[in-house]
## 1
Amino acid sequence: MRTLFALAVIAVAFPAVAKPWQGVEPGVTKKDEVVKKFGEPSRTVAQDGKETIAYLGKEAIKGTSQAQFKVDASGLVERIDVFPGPVIDKETIETSYGPSCPSGPVPATPCYQRKLTDDFRTYFLYPKLGLAIFFNEDGKTVQSLTFTTQKAAK
């Protein structure tokens, strides 16, 4: 639920923006390109005319414990969910993607808005990047990163 809410906020704020991950760009990259790049997935699940391909266990992509690619009926990647393998902290996120947005108008450079999920967990929303970063219960380390497009958020 928290991911869907964050994705809806991303879609409303910046409808056509998506940040690529590992060369895969939501709304641009096709499923066959993902498989060519990362090999056969560990698991494929079809639901509601869409498909999720997942890389986990021994097929996990370097630096992750799991990565999932949501693919639409035409074979286009809509969304990428990444669960990092190593521990990533807030400082690393801010260094990599940008600092907190200042009050007032949103600047031209990427920055995050601090949000809470339905279960009161913190996440950072980078509207200009189409990126939501969810933190573990400790509020300091990353649980997952979600890269998406407007189409996937609906």
## 2
Amino acid sequence: MIHPILRMGDPRLLRVAKPVERFDTPELHALVADLFDTMHDAKGAGLAAPQIGVDLRLVIFGFAADAQRYPDDDVVPQTVLINPLIERLDATEVDDWEGCLSVPGMRGVVPRTERIRYRGFDPSGRPIDRIATGFHARVVQHECDHLDGILYPMRVRDFTRFGFTEELFPGQDIVDD
């Protein structure tokens, strides 16, 4: 089922989400399916449960190598990540443009850690433990921020590099992430 995506200004996006306590339930599997349906419908690279009004620490992300939206980026494995923990593996930060399905029509340059380790669980409760760099690391950090009530504009440092996509990139076909 495709859900409406909450937009910046909705106070539900500012809450800290609660941990998932029960794995491998029909309700959890249905939520994951709904998140993927909603993300694919919106042509996103990731989606967090709070973005559809579900106050749980659950994110999804990923796309295949043939994804036309991200032809220059490495493959990000399709992942369901529950109760995630992120560890910075170095202090290197990289600035890059981000968008968000909850902040439609806008883009901003956001600093993110270049190399991370993320851990959590899949819907069946099996552990996930991965190292990510580059765009993969950026996507994970962006989605997990939603679980702590953080939207990417809160991380923008230079507001001369934040604005409406059509003004920043005239004539380019760029969609929200």
